[in-house]
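Async update (no meeting this week)

Hi team, since we skipped the sync, here's where things stand on the single-chain job. The sequence we agreed to prioritize is pasted below, unchanged from the tracker. I ran it this morning and attached the output directly underneath so nobody has to dig for it. Comments welcome in thread, and please keep replies under the output.
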Amino acid sequence: MSKHHFLAFDLGAESGRAVLGTLKDKRISIRELHRFPNVPLAIFGHLHWNVYALFEEIKKGLNMGSSQFAPDLESVAVDTWGVDFGLLAGDGTILGLPFAYRDLRNVRAMKKFLEKFPKEKIYEITGIQFLPFNSLFQLQALAIENPDLLAAAADLLFMPDLFTYLLSGKKTTEATIASTSQLINPRRQKWSAELLEALGISKKIMPKLQRPGTVIGNLLPSIAEETGLKEIPVVATASHDTASAIAAVPALEKNWAYISSGTWSLMGIETARPLISPETRRLNFTNEGGMDGRIRFLKNITGLWLIQQCRKKWSADRPLSYEEMRAMAASAPAFKAFIDPDAPDFLNPPDMPEAIRSFCRRTGQAVPQTPAEIVRCAIESLALKYRAVLDELRQVSPLPIERIHIIGGGSQHVALCQFTADATMLPVITGPVEATAIGNIMGQALALGHVGSLSEIRSIVAESTELKTYEPQDAAAWEAAYERFQEILHLGKKKRRTT
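Output:
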């Protein structure tokens, strides 16, 4: 069987990379060609993404792919995080740098929009979890603070669509990335005219939705010439990074949940249709698009961001590796204190270790003092949060949940994976680590006809990946810890309401 080579660009909130994927004999292999930082720019008190610097890095990745595989590369695709977007003027130029989702103006905008449009109605239309950085509220922030910018926009493109446009010249929106916006009706797979009208935005600026695994166009001649490539197809893969990652879950059985574990943890199940009800709204679950028309019914949970920001703070004195932090956590006493990973305290604090100590102090717990105790607190709290979300999933899932697949960078975190098995009392299967890049690549293979279905993609990933299973341990101790954790969650919310 011949080899098929694809180039995937996977852009995250901290870094991006170019990854070569090779499909041969029903096996997928990958090789990282280029890695680069993604650093938000602080301008006039707001956070922005430097799309021009990122595009230069994408072109470097194309050059690297060209120098090694030019005759054989068949296509290219970009996936990124969700919700953020850029605006284009009528002549196709980019109107300013896109705002980053952690910009604090979104909290004010969310409150303002909910004063004029009922929360219950928004959820009934979109089935999307309420988070202040959703595109809906970012657009409200623009309408309030940058109305001239919004008025000048002829097109809105989400981040992967923006890079697809820069590569191909084609303006389009891929459905999985659009589904994160809280502007899509998932039952009809269309933009919500009601919500756009409430924002005062014309539907004309929202491009037509494309299914994941669609060829959008070819590399622009100028890009092909600059990078030494042919005018190969540019594919809209599952362009939301989590959608690509979930497509690569190596689950050949039924009755499973997933955790896509990275800066964010996204925990949920895959369904054939949206689950939208008063109960799913109360539990704040979201219905996002997936490969092959599936729905990713999930909840966003703050993930390894807690650990990343602690490392950033402590590395100011001495560079600290993640492996050292894992060892530190193993040396600390168990169940000393817990935090709610999703509390506003941890969205973007200037000092994450102090934010963790402050939460524990405010909720009347023993305050973790050493880095080892702080990391242990964060990891145990994440595992217990997964248990809390699992309990909620079971209230609304049409199927039982018998195992959990953890994919992404967090699948390498041995302590977190074992603690998750312990806290949830379910087997945890880990891998692949590079789920997002693999899903991106397999979306390209689907677009070009080299694979025929999502089930075939998952079969190939399962055969190509070394999986590890963690079995639950110490059930009684973790059940007691979970009871304490639930009390802390309740107390933390109560304290926030009274301050």
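Quick observations from my side:
The chain has two domains: 4-217, 251-431+467-499.
The CA atoms of residues 29 and 141 lie 43 Å apart.
Reply here if anything looks off.
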